[in-house]
Amino acid sequence: MKGLKAFWQRGKLSKVIVIVVVFIILFIIGTITMPQTVRVEYGFSSDENLTIELSTHNDSNAVDEVTRMAIDDLKEDSLEERNEVINDGLYYIRENLDDLTSDNETMEKVMYYGNYIYHFIEENSGTSNVGELTDTERAVYEIGYYAQEYVKYPYRGLEGTRTNNVEIIRDALAQLQ
User: Fold this and answer.
1) How confident is the model over 89-114, as pLDDT tens digits?
2) Most buried among 25, 86, 89, 130, by the most CB within 10 A?
3) Nearest to residue 136, comparing CAs of 117, 160, 115, 155?
4) CA gyration radius for the chain?
5) How many CA atoms lie within 13 A of 109 on its CB side?
6) What is the pTM of this model?
């Protein structure tokens, strides 16, 4: 208590210096702990060459395995690799939009790319919900999310809610053109 009293009895310059230093420290702490956004240049890359090897096919274990692969790869990839995978995925989904459920290979790639893309947006956008995303980020998120949702039920031979997923994906793709 004596130290605080003695501080306030000092001159104005000392008080100003201490207050400025405290604000600088608080600013630095706030900047360090603030979620950092990672920017990717979204586009369409025709260099897609993904191969997926699974222990099983057409069941929930395979869906989980593809999802885990995408999330693990996302965590390990550099920003440059993330950019490539996302743009390859956007290209692949766009080019196969009318045949997303044509065969296992296509559905597995769509699940992989979809999960990779939408998990990237969730983890790197710096927002707490989809409504706060920029228009471009939201379009990319919707492409990834709705593509993987669209194929995961037919892949397992199940019926699922897929009412207007293709239309949502098509509209989101149009925003990126």
Assistant:
1) 999 999 999 999 999 999 999 999 99
2) 89
3) 117
4) 24
5) 24
6) 0.77
